[in-house]
Amino acid sequence: MGRKKLKRKPEPKRRMRWPRWTGISGSTLRDWLPIVGALLIPLLIFYGTARITGQQGKLENDRAEAEQDLAEQRAQDEALQAYLNQMSSLLLEKELFNAELGSDVSTLARARTLTVLERLDRSRKEVVFQFLMEAGLVQRMAGREPIISLGGADLSDTNLSLHDLRGVNWGRIDLSGASLWGTNLSDANLSTADLSGATVRGILIGADLSNANLRSATLGGNLSNANLSGVDLRGAKLRDPDLSGADLRFADLSSADFSGVDLSGANLSSADLSSADLRDTNLSGATLDGNLSNANLSGADLNGADLRDAVLIDANLSDARVSKEQLD
């Protein structure tokens, strides 16, 4: 007799095992697919709508910012043009060019100049300065004092390079971050000016920079016999300047880079040179009128510096890097 074939029992449908307390323990995955799909559709629609709305909002913000920037540029152009028109009127109708410093027309021109410089951006400030220079209003000419004093003006971040700025009265001016490369500032008055972070490299023979703020500035060029007394040069970078015979009394030169600088005959009395880099600096002949007495040189690097005939009376040399041969 043939063997009876064993019939396999059909496999039961796989069902998701849910906890009994849910009351849905008998439902299969296939049963739930339509429900899950129905729930996902509104979620996807919500996400897509939110994304589109966000993009539209960003576009509207960008458009608003562009319109605001355009309006600001237009306002600055109008302010600049109005200033040039007013100054032209003062020159032609009020004979501003023949006015004296402090006169009514000079005071009016100065007030308008200071006001417009506070409103304008960098490029338009440069236009105003170029106009004033070409009109001969801010520099000493033919023995006559400047008609308009720039003291207190805001010329921060402007490019004033390659200008002949001799005889300009810059007292208390804001030149922070400005570029003064290749300028001629001989005998210029920059006392108490803010030149922090500025690049000053040119001819500054005999310039008055007393009590100026040159913190973190880049300074170079010919500064021989310049007045730098009380100046703030903390962290400044000096690029091959000639400071021979310069007056640096009571100046704060801490952490400044003076490596390779010519300081022969300079007056550094009571100056703070703590932690300054004075490697290979020429300090020869710094005596009496140009001495280092009472100077703070603690932590300064004097390796290779020329100290011949230098007077170091009561100078603070604690932790300074200097050889016995140099001091001898």
Overview of the structural elements:
The chain is α/β, with parallel strands linked by helices and 328 residues long. It has a domain of 101 residues. 30% of the residues lie in helices and 7% in strands. It has a four-stranded parallel beta sheet with strand order 1-2-3-4, with no helix packed on it. The longest helix has 65 residues. It is flat and about 100 Å long. The chain starts with 28 loop residues before the first helix and ends with a helix.
Summarize the structure.
With 328 residues, the chain is an alpha/beta fold. It has a domain at 41-141. It has helices at 29-93, 104-119, 122-134, 324-327, and strands spanning 179-184, 199-203, 218-222, 237-242.
Output the keywords.
single chain; about 5% strand; four-stranded parallel β-sheet; about 325 residues; 4 strands
How much of the sequence is in beta strands?
A: 5-15%
Provide the succession of SSEs: HHHEEEEH
How does the major sheet shape up? 4 strands, parallel
| Ends apart, CA distance between termini | 128 Å
Q: What value does the average pLDDT take?
A: 81
Which runs of at least 5 residues are low in confidence (pLDDT < 50)? 287-291
Q: How many DSSP-defined strands? A: 4
* Order of strands in the sheet with most strands: 1-2-3-4
What coarse outline follows from CA principal-axis ratios? flat
List the helices and strands and how they pair.
Blueprint: H1 29-93, H2 104-119, H3 122-134, E1 179-184, E2 199-203, E3 218-222, E4 237-242, H4 324-327
Parallel strand pairs: 1-2, 2-3, 3-4
